[in-house]
Amino acid sequence: MNTDYWRIYHDQNTLAWGDTHCRTHTLLSTGVRLHLDLYEQADRSAPVMIFNHGGGGYSRLFIPIAHALYERGYTVILPDQRGQGLSEGDRGDFTIGQHVENIVDVAQWARKTYDGPLYMGGGSLGGGLTYYAAAAGAPVDALILHNLYDFGPGGDGLALSRLAPLSQIPGFAALSRIMSTIAARLLPGLKIPYRWLGVFERMVDERAVGFYEQWRADPYPIQAVSLRYLHSLMTTPPAIPFERNRLRVLVINQKRDRMVRPEVTRRNYERLGGDKHYVEIDYGHWAMGAAFVSEWTAIVDGFLRRSG
Protein backbone atom coordinates (compact mmCIF):
# COMPACT_ATOMS: atom_id res chain seq x y z
CA MET A 1 0.00 0.00 0.00
CA ASN A 2 1.18 3.53 -0.80
CA THR A 3 1.03 4.89 2.75
CA ASP A 4 1.59 8.48 1.57
CA TYR A 5 -1.14 8.47 -1.08
CA TRP A 6 -3.32 10.82 1.00
CA ARG A 7 -0.80 13.61 0.37
CA ILE A 8 -2.06 14.09 -3.20
CA TYR A 9 -5.25 15.70 -1.92
CA HIS A 10 -3.50 18.65 -0.27
CA ASP A 11 -1.33 21.58 -1.33
CA GLN A 12 2.23 22.00 -0.07
CA ASN A 13 1.33 24.57 2.59
CA THR A 14 -1.32 22.29 4.08
CA LEU A 15 1.04 19.33 4.04
CA ALA A 16 3.81 21.33 5.70
CA TRP A 17 1.43 22.51 8.41
CA GLY A 18 0.15 18.99 9.00
CA ASP A 19 3.65 17.52 9.16
CA THR A 20 4.56 20.12 11.77
CA HIS A 21 1.47 19.97 13.95
CA CYS A 22 0.17 16.40 13.75
CA ARG A 23 0.78 14.01 16.62
CA THR A 24 -0.51 10.46 16.35
CA HIS A 25 -2.02 8.36 19.09
CA THR A 26 -3.43 4.84 19.32
CA LEU A 27 -6.41 3.87 21.44
CA LEU A 28 -7.73 0.39 22.19
CA SER A 29 -11.42 0.01 21.28
CA THR A 30 -13.54 -3.02 20.31
CA GLY A 31 -10.40 -5.16 20.61
CA VAL A 32 -8.32 -3.25 18.04
CA ARG A 33 -6.00 -0.26 18.07
CA LEU A 34 -7.60 2.86 16.63
CA HIS A 35 -5.48 5.50 14.92
CA LEU A 36 -5.96 9.13 15.95
CA ASP A 37 -4.41 12.25 14.41
CA LEU A 38 -4.13 15.01 17.02
CA TYR A 39 -3.67 18.72 16.35
CA GLU A 40 -3.25 20.05 19.86
CA GLN A 41 -3.29 23.56 21.23
CA ALA A 42 -0.71 24.28 23.93
CA ASP A 43 -3.54 25.27 26.25
CA ARG A 44 -5.28 22.16 27.65
CA SER A 45 -8.40 24.24 28.30
CA ALA A 46 -8.86 25.05 24.59
CA PRO A 47 -12.08 23.76 23.01
CA VAL A 48 -11.76 20.31 21.44
CA MET A 49 -13.37 19.09 18.22
CA ILE A 50 -13.55 15.39 17.32
CA PHE A 51 -14.44 14.95 13.65
CA ASN A 52 -15.63 11.51 12.48
CA HIS A 53 -15.18 10.42 8.87
CA GLY A 54 -17.85 8.73 6.77
CA GLY A 55 -17.87 5.42 4.94
CA GLY A 56 -15.62 6.59 2.13
CA GLY A 57 -13.25 8.70 4.21
CA TYR A 58 -10.48 8.60 6.80
CA SER A 59 -8.56 10.99 9.02
CA ARG A 60 -5.96 12.31 6.58
CA LEU A 61 -8.57 13.66 4.16
CA PHE A 62 -9.57 16.31 6.70
CA ILE A 63 -6.27 18.07 7.40
CA PRO A 64 -7.56 21.36 5.86
CA ILE A 65 -10.53 21.36 8.27
CA ALA A 66 -8.18 20.55 11.16
CA HIS A 67 -5.96 23.46 10.11
CA ALA A 68 -8.86 25.91 9.87
CA LEU A 69 -10.30 24.91 13.25
CA TYR A 70 -6.83 24.96 14.84
CA GLU A 71 -6.32 28.53 13.64
CA ARG A 72 -9.57 29.43 15.42
CA GLY A 73 -8.26 28.01 18.68
CA TYR A 74 -9.47 24.40 18.67
CA THR A 75 -7.62 21.21 19.47
CA VAL A 76 -8.71 18.82 16.71
CA ILE A 77 -8.94 15.02 16.87
CA LEU A 78 -9.34 13.02 13.65
CA PRO A 79 -9.94 9.32 14.44
CA ASP A 80 -10.13 6.37 12.07
CA GLN A 81 -12.83 3.86 12.93
CA ARG A 82 -12.27 0.13 13.21
CA GLY A 83 -11.14 -1.43 9.92
CA GLN A 84 -10.78 1.91 8.16
CA GLY A 85 -8.03 4.39 7.42
CA LEU A 86 -4.94 3.75 9.54
CA SER A 87 -6.75 1.80 12.28
CA GLU A 88 -6.56 -1.94 12.87
CA GLY A 89 -9.39 -4.37 12.21
CA ASP A 90 -10.77 -6.37 9.32
CA ARG A 91 -11.24 -3.93 6.47
CA GLY A 92 -14.92 -4.00 5.67
CA ASP A 93 -16.19 -6.41 8.31
CA PHE A 94 -17.60 -4.35 11.18
CA THR A 95 -20.95 -3.04 12.38
CA ILE A 96 -22.61 0.27 13.10
CA GLY A 97 -22.54 -0.69 16.78
CA GLN A 98 -18.77 -1.19 16.73
CA HIS A 99 -18.24 2.18 15.07
CA VAL A 100 -20.43 3.82 17.69
CA GLU A 101 -18.38 2.17 20.43
CA ASN A 102 -15.17 3.40 18.76
CA ILE A 103 -16.42 6.98 18.74
CA VAL A 104 -17.63 6.80 22.35
CA ASP A 105 -14.20 5.50 23.42
CA VAL A 106 -12.43 8.34 21.59
CA ALA A 107 -14.71 10.92 23.23
CA GLN A 108 -14.17 9.44 26.70
CA TRP A 109 -10.40 9.48 26.13
CA ALA A 110 -10.57 13.11 24.99
CA ARG A 111 -12.64 14.12 28.02
CA LYS A 112 -9.96 12.67 30.31
CA THR A 113 -7.07 14.15 28.31
CA TYR A 114 -8.18 17.75 27.77
CA ASP A 115 -9.88 20.31 30.01
CA GLY A 116 -11.81 22.40 27.50
CA PRO A 117 -15.36 21.97 26.21
CA LEU A 118 -15.68 18.88 24.03
CA TYR A 119 -17.51 19.04 20.71
CA MET A 120 -18.01 16.33 18.15
CA GLY A 121 -18.83 16.38 14.46
CA GLY A 122 -19.04 14.07 11.49
CA GLY A 123 -19.75 14.07 7.80
CA SER A 124 -21.80 11.77 5.59
CA LEU A 125 -22.21 8.43 7.39
CA GLY A 126 -20.10 9.97 10.15
CA GLY A 127 -22.85 12.52 10.84
CA GLY A 128 -25.26 9.76 11.78
CA LEU A 129 -22.58 7.91 13.75
CA THR A 130 -21.79 11.07 15.68
CA TYR A 131 -25.38 11.39 16.86
CA TYR A 132 -25.48 7.67 17.68
CA ALA A 133 -22.31 7.96 19.78
CA ALA A 134 -23.66 10.95 21.70
CA ALA A 135 -26.88 9.02 22.33
CA ALA A 136 -24.79 6.08 23.57
CA GLY A 137 -22.98 8.19 26.15
CA ALA A 138 -20.13 10.08 24.47
CA PRO A 139 -19.51 12.96 26.93
CA VAL A 140 -19.82 15.90 24.53
CA ASP A 141 -21.23 19.40 24.86
CA ALA A 142 -22.58 19.96 21.33
CA LEU A 143 -22.79 18.19 17.96
CA ILE A 144 -22.02 19.19 14.36
CA LEU A 145 -23.87 16.80 12.06
CA HIS A 146 -22.92 17.23 8.40
CA ASN A 147 -25.78 14.94 7.35
CA LEU A 148 -27.99 13.04 9.76
CA TYR A 149 -29.08 9.47 9.05
CA ASP A 150 -31.12 6.84 10.86
CA PHE A 151 -29.74 3.27 10.62
CA GLY A 152 -32.68 1.64 12.37
CA PRO A 153 -35.58 -0.38 10.97
CA GLY A 154 -37.59 1.89 8.73
CA GLY A 155 -34.60 4.23 8.57
CA ASP A 156 -32.26 5.37 5.82
CA GLY A 157 -30.26 2.26 4.92
CA LEU A 158 -31.74 2.10 1.42
CA ALA A 159 -31.71 5.88 0.97
CA LEU A 160 -27.90 5.81 1.25
CA SER A 161 -27.55 3.28 -1.57
CA ARG A 162 -28.03 2.92 -5.31
CA LEU A 163 -31.35 1.26 -4.48
CA ALA A 164 -32.79 4.51 -3.11
CA PRO A 165 -35.35 4.89 -5.95
CA LEU A 166 -36.76 1.43 -5.13
CA SER A 167 -37.44 2.44 -1.54
CA GLN A 168 -40.58 4.18 -2.79
CA ILE A 169 -42.11 0.82 -3.77
CA PRO A 170 -44.50 -0.33 -1.02
CA GLY A 171 -42.99 -3.19 0.96
CA PHE A 172 -39.54 -3.04 -0.68
CA ALA A 173 -37.80 -1.65 2.41
CA ALA A 174 -39.30 -4.32 4.66
CA LEU A 175 -38.37 -7.06 2.17
CA SER A 176 -34.81 -5.71 2.02
CA ARG A 177 -34.49 -5.91 5.79
CA ILE A 178 -35.75 -9.48 5.81
CA MET A 179 -33.33 -10.48 3.06
CA SER A 180 -30.42 -8.74 4.80
CA THR A 181 -31.24 -10.60 8.02
CA ILE A 182 -31.27 -13.97 6.27
CA ALA A 183 -28.06 -13.21 4.35
CA ALA A 184 -26.24 -11.97 7.46
CA ARG A 185 -27.17 -15.12 9.36
CA LEU A 186 -26.07 -17.45 6.59
CA LEU A 187 -22.90 -15.68 5.39
CA PRO A 188 -22.11 -12.82 7.80
CA GLY A 189 -18.51 -12.38 6.63
CA LEU A 190 -19.20 -12.47 2.91
CA LYS A 191 -18.09 -9.21 1.35
CA ILE A 192 -19.37 -7.33 -1.66
CA PRO A 193 -17.69 -4.36 -3.41
CA TYR A 194 -18.45 -1.19 -1.48
CA ARG A 195 -18.68 0.95 -4.59
CA TRP A 196 -21.56 -1.16 -5.86
CA LEU A 197 -23.61 0.19 -2.97
CA GLY A 198 -23.25 3.97 -2.88
CA VAL A 199 -23.36 6.47 -5.74
CA PHE A 200 -19.79 7.50 -5.03
CA GLU A 201 -19.28 9.05 -8.46
CA ARG A 202 -21.67 11.74 -7.20
CA MET A 203 -19.88 12.23 -3.90
CA VAL A 204 -18.72 15.75 -4.81
CA ASP A 205 -20.34 18.32 -7.07
CA GLU A 206 -19.15 19.36 -10.52
CA ARG A 207 -16.72 21.97 -9.17
CA ALA A 208 -14.45 19.36 -7.54
CA VAL A 209 -12.73 18.42 -10.79
CA GLY A 210 -10.53 15.33 -10.50
CA PHE A 211 -11.36 14.45 -6.90
CA TYR A 212 -13.37 11.31 -7.64
CA GLU A 213 -10.61 9.89 -9.88
CA GLN A 214 -8.07 10.49 -7.12
CA TRP A 215 -10.31 8.96 -4.47
CA ARG A 216 -11.10 5.91 -6.63
CA ALA A 217 -7.37 5.09 -6.78
CA ASP A 218 -6.83 5.70 -3.05
CA PRO A 219 -5.77 2.50 -1.21
CA TYR A 220 -7.12 3.67 2.16
CA PRO A 221 -10.94 3.76 1.72
CA ILE A 222 -12.61 0.40 2.24
CA GLN A 223 -13.06 -1.64 -0.94
CA ALA A 224 -15.68 -4.16 0.21
CA VAL A 225 -18.11 -4.56 3.11
CA SER A 226 -19.59 -7.62 4.77
CA LEU A 227 -23.21 -8.71 4.85
CA ARG A 228 -22.93 -8.32 8.62
CA TYR A 229 -22.23 -4.62 8.15
CA LEU A 230 -25.02 -4.13 5.63
CA HIS A 231 -27.48 -5.78 8.00
CA SER A 232 -26.40 -3.44 10.82
CA LEU A 233 -26.83 -0.44 8.50
CA MET A 234 -30.54 -1.28 8.22
CA THR A 235 -31.36 -2.56 11.69
CA THR A 236 -29.48 -0.46 14.29
CA PRO A 237 -31.59 2.25 15.98
CA PRO A 238 -29.94 4.96 18.11
CA ALA A 239 -29.92 4.49 21.87
CA ILE A 240 -31.98 7.68 22.12
CA PRO A 241 -34.44 8.40 19.29
CA PHE A 242 -33.97 11.67 17.43
CA GLU A 243 -37.18 12.99 18.95
CA ARG A 244 -35.73 12.72 22.47
CA ASN A 245 -32.44 14.45 21.74
CA ARG A 246 -31.36 16.89 24.46
CA LEU A 247 -27.98 18.02 23.16
CA ARG A 248 -27.35 21.27 21.32
CA VAL A 249 -27.07 20.29 17.65
CA LEU A 250 -26.16 21.96 14.37
CA VAL A 251 -27.24 20.04 11.25
CA ILE A 252 -25.55 20.97 7.97
CA ASN A 253 -27.19 19.88 4.73
CA GLN A 254 -26.04 20.18 1.10
CA LYS A 255 -28.22 21.66 -1.62
CA ARG A 256 -26.24 20.01 -4.44
CA ASP A 257 -26.13 16.53 -2.89
CA ARG A 258 -26.71 13.99 -5.68
CA MET A 259 -25.39 11.02 -3.70
CA VAL A 260 -28.08 11.05 -0.99
CA ARG A 261 -31.17 13.21 -1.41
CA PRO A 262 -31.01 16.34 0.82
CA GLU A 263 -34.57 15.53 1.92
CA VAL A 264 -33.21 12.62 3.98
CA THR A 265 -31.17 14.84 6.29
CA ARG A 266 -33.88 17.51 6.30
CA ARG A 267 -36.49 14.98 7.42
CA ASN A 268 -34.27 13.71 10.22
CA TYR A 269 -33.54 17.24 11.36
CA GLU A 270 -37.27 17.86 11.66
CA ARG A 271 -37.53 14.79 13.89
CA LEU A 272 -34.87 16.07 16.27
CA GLY A 273 -35.87 17.30 19.68
CA GLY A 274 -33.82 19.64 21.82
CA ASP A 275 -31.91 22.80 20.93
CA LYS A 276 -31.39 22.31 17.21
CA HIS A 277 -30.17 24.52 14.36
CA TYR A 278 -30.11 23.96 10.60
CA VAL A 279 -27.98 25.33 7.76
CA GLU A 280 -28.01 24.48 4.04
CA ILE A 281 -24.84 25.04 2.02
CA ASP A 282 -24.36 25.14 -1.74
CA TYR A 283 -22.18 22.03 -2.12
CA GLY A 284 -22.39 18.35 -2.98
CA HIS A 285 -22.44 15.43 -0.57
CA TRP A 286 -18.91 16.38 0.46
CA ALA A 287 -16.53 19.04 -0.77
CA MET A 288 -12.87 19.96 -0.82
CA GLY A 289 -11.13 23.26 -1.45
CA ALA A 290 -10.37 26.49 0.37
CA ALA A 291 -13.76 28.13 -0.20
CA PHE A 292 -15.66 25.19 1.28
CA VAL A 293 -13.32 24.85 4.26
CA SER A 294 -13.57 28.57 5.01
CA GLU A 295 -17.38 28.62 4.80
CA TRP A 296 -17.83 25.38 6.73
CA THR A 297 -15.44 26.39 9.51
CA ALA A 298 -17.05 29.81 9.91
CA ILE A 299 -20.50 28.22 10.29
CA VAL A 300 -19.25 25.65 12.79
CA ASP A 301 -17.17 28.07 14.85
CA GLY A 302 -19.97 30.64 14.94
CA PHE A 303 -22.42 28.03 16.20
CA LEU A 304 -20.04 26.67 18.87
CA ARG A 305 -19.13 30.11 20.17
CA ARG A 306 -22.83 30.86 20.60
CA SER A 307 -23.38 27.51 22.29
CA GLY A 308 -20.31 27.79 24.49
Structural class: alpha/beta
The topology string of helices and strands comes to HEEEHEHEHEHEHEHEHEH
Task: Report the span from N to C terminus.
Answer: 42 Å
Predict the CATH topology: Rossmann fold
User: Quaternary arrangement of the chains shown?
Assistant: single chain
CATH class: Alpha Beta
Biggest sheet overview: 8 strands, mixed
Rg (C-alpha, Å):
18 Å
Number of helices: 9
Strand content: 15-25%
Number of strands: 10
Query: Shape, please?
Result: globular
- How many distinct folded domains? 1
Q: Going by CATH, what is the homologous superfamily?
A: Alpha/Beta hydrolase fold, catalytic domain
Task: Explain this structure.
The protein is globular, with a radius of gyration of 18 Å. The protein has 308 residues and is of the alpha/beta class. The relative contact order is 0.14. It has a single domain, classed as Rossmann fold (3-Layer(aba) Sandwich), CATH 3.40.50.1820. Helix 2 crosses helix 9. It contains nine helices and ten strands. Strand 9, helix 8 and strand 10 form a beta-alpha-beta unit. The longest helix is centred in the middle third of the chain and has 18 residues.
Summarize the structure.
The mean pLDDT is 96. 46% of the residues are buried. The protein has nine helices and ten strands.
Topology diagram in text:
Blueprint: H1 12-21, E1 22-29, E2 32-39, E3 48-52, H2 63-71, E4 75-79, H3 96-113, E5 118-123, H4 125-135, E6 142-146, H5 172-186, E7 191-193, H6 211-216, E8 224-226, H7 227-235, E9 248-254, H8 262-271, E10 276-281, H9 290-307
Parallel strand pairs: 3-4, 3-5, 5-6, 6-9, 9-10
Antiparallel strand pairs: 1-2, 2-4, 7-8
